[in-house]
Amino acid sequence: MMLETIFGVAGQRVLIVGATPIGEASAAMFGNLGATAELADIVPEEAAIAETVAGFVERNGGIDLLVYAVTRIGTYALPTMALDQWDAVQDANLRGAFLAMRAVIPVMRTQGGGAIVAVSTMGSVHPVLKGNGAYGASKAGLNALVRAAALDHAEDGIRVNAVLPGAVPVGDPPADMERLGGPATQPGRLTLGMGSAEDIASAIVYLASPAGRFITGQALVLDGGFLIG
Amino acid sequence: MTDQQNLPTALAPFTLTGKVALITGAASGLGKATAGLFLDVGAKVVIADLDADGARATAAELAGKGPTLGVSMDVSDESAVQAGFAAAAEAFGGVDILVNNAAYRGKANTMDMSVAEWDIMHAVCARGSFLCLREAVKQMRGRGGGSIVNVSSMSAQHPTIFPNMHYDSAKAGVDAITRLAAVEFAKDGIRVNSVLPGGMATPGPDKMRAAQAAGGAVIAGPATIPGRNPMGRVADPIEMARAILFLASDAASYINGAELLVDAGFTKG
Question: Smallest CA–CA separation between B158 and chain A, in Å?
Fold first, then answer.
């Protein structure tokens, strides 16, 4: 009972956009904790997001938490990366997040508040693997979007945060670390070894729970200690 | 032709012509390299070191480059610091540049570090930087300003080796001094910045390895991971000295409170 008042998310209406491993783990965890969680496996274009959010709100009477879990990795060498490749990564990771925020914020504002958690990456603040220029840049943009949204909508009772997984399979399929190479492949760099999608979902629960009610605009790194190694 | 005419003028801010610099820990290693470079670009240099004989010997060795003064200075000792700065003022009229380079380099495993070991580290690195800064500010205020460069370490920002908790803590303190002093003394025309070196080929690391071989603290941690340093080599002290020179010089006239990492990209790798 005590724990429920601190970390409980029962009854929350949770929309998770992006059927990535972290999106799926989050949907399962929120469901197990008594929340109403829906996982949207969509291409994050304007119409699809608007439709998804409208449908969710109609079914559930509102939305308490948006988890934007869409993650398109796309590892390309900078000199040969096609513009389409660059754009596809930015569109999925950053443009889609903007569209999803734009769709849910008016609903949250009307109902008196809500929370948004965006799944970013440790690679947005520190090089991890080679070939991640487009990916890291898109997620760094996402971090900035999170901070801006947190500032703009604090007065609406909407908290906006990012989780930054590292050493966790975030894409589908996961990045081929050994083929790419980079700091994360050096022996001993992954201080706690590899993490799981559930490790990230737990942090999203924390940010959505009463325990997270004073946290906004933050980028919570969940990397098994990589950044200090 | 135009380039040749403009070159000396354009490079003038990078020199220290006529400036008086006091460098602590200058008898050897990075301090000595910095002293030599400063002399090369026109400074008068006070070579301060705990090793009084070493300070005098280095001052004599470098005297061919320009005016030098060797002074004995335990930077953790308030009266010794005051005496050293008084000697600098007597010889050269006062200091325009302070390089807080002196450091204690003892290693100790966290779980069996003595309190004395912890304390001496902070006495030299943190208290010493404070004491020297205070004396320098007194003299700089009378000279229209100055520049203070604190030699910190990349390990103030990022773990490098384990038997170094006291060092990392003290150097993080040095960076806090940099930030605060940069704001507090800006009105006096005094800039304060940090250089954060990565691994260097100086006597310090050699002593560390020798101590480990003799049964001392075991060196382990991120910096010992093969391939961890993106450039794959330690620095020559002159590469740090050039960064210190830049921050000390008028070329950095709008840089205040900065922490300049000179670490081969270690902290980004």
Answer: 6
